[in-house]
Automatic annotation (TrEMBL):
Pathway: Amino-acid degradation; L-valine degradation. Residues 187-313 form the 3-hydroxyisobutyrate dehydrogenase-like NAD-binding domain. It holds the Pfam family NAD_binding_11. It catalyses: 3-hydroxy-2-methylpropanoate + NAD(+) = 2-methyl-3-oxopropanoate + NADH + H(+). Its EC number is 1.1.1.31. GO terms for molecular function: 3-hydroxyisobutyrate dehydrogenase activity; NAD binding; NADP binding. The gene is LOC106121452. This is 3-hydroxyisobutyrate dehydrogenase. It is an enzyme of class 1 (oxidoreductase).
Amino acid sequence: MATGVSTRCLLTLSKRGFSSKADKNVAFLGLGNMGGYMAANLVKKGFNVRGYDPSKDALTAAAKNGISGANSIAAAVDGVDVVVSILPSNKVVLDAYLGKDGVVKHATKGALLIDSSTVDPNVPKQIFPVATENGVNFIDAPVSGGVMGAQNATLAFMAGGRKDDFTRSLPMLQAMGAKHFHCGDVGSGQVAKLTNNMLMGITGMATAECMNMGIKMGLDPQVLLDVLNNSSARSWSTEVYCPVPGLVPTAPSSRNYDGGFKNELMVKDLELASGMALGIRSPIPLGAVATQLYRIVQSRGYGQKDFSFVFQLLKEEAEKK
């Protein structure tokens, strides 16, 4: 892929309750753990939302939040002003946008397409020229903040695409999130997201490793956490996402590692980030170690648990010795 993005990332803070009269009708593709809440927040802010998901259960749940259902992508996007999607993989995104039943073929001329999936940066670069040729506008806008961020409309959006398209997307992004960054050309949002998630995986791994060591040496877990949070090692992983159960009540570790960012998704994102780094020959020794460690967690059958479950893996290994 191309070398790094040179355009400065621009931050826009949320201004709640505003929506463009021209863009009131939205199709939402992907109504799972993230998309269901995101679509519901659009409804709360006055948008008319028509959703599509291959899961009937997801459509039923969405209907309870005021989202009308469609039986295909083509039916969902017919006549709408904006399409928002959050889908699980490169292939699913490409099929959804460029397939025979896809968004680009069936979207209204002039519509704005916003893909919030986390994929290889080359995926939006494939979609953008086809979308442009067909008279529709496209940005990639992956998110950070997890299920809680989606539920509470506090997500951070990292967008790549034309500045005019980003500006047009803001009423929708502001309905679903608290911070919105324009990171540059198409694909830049994915670069920012994958960079963020690799660092999140590395710091999460390091926090689990070092807290396990300190606890094994006899330190009280709460005392250790207090020291870390008031010292140079303080981070999001210690303050918000502590991997040790019972220390931060809102962290997934205190909910049996459920309801967070699944380990299998961390593996997916680290593999995407690793491929991106390989393409530009950027050394990622810590990223490579993190990828392997989370793969081990997944191979042990814990892919559905939050990625901070890595603490339990390290704890178990230490207890064996």
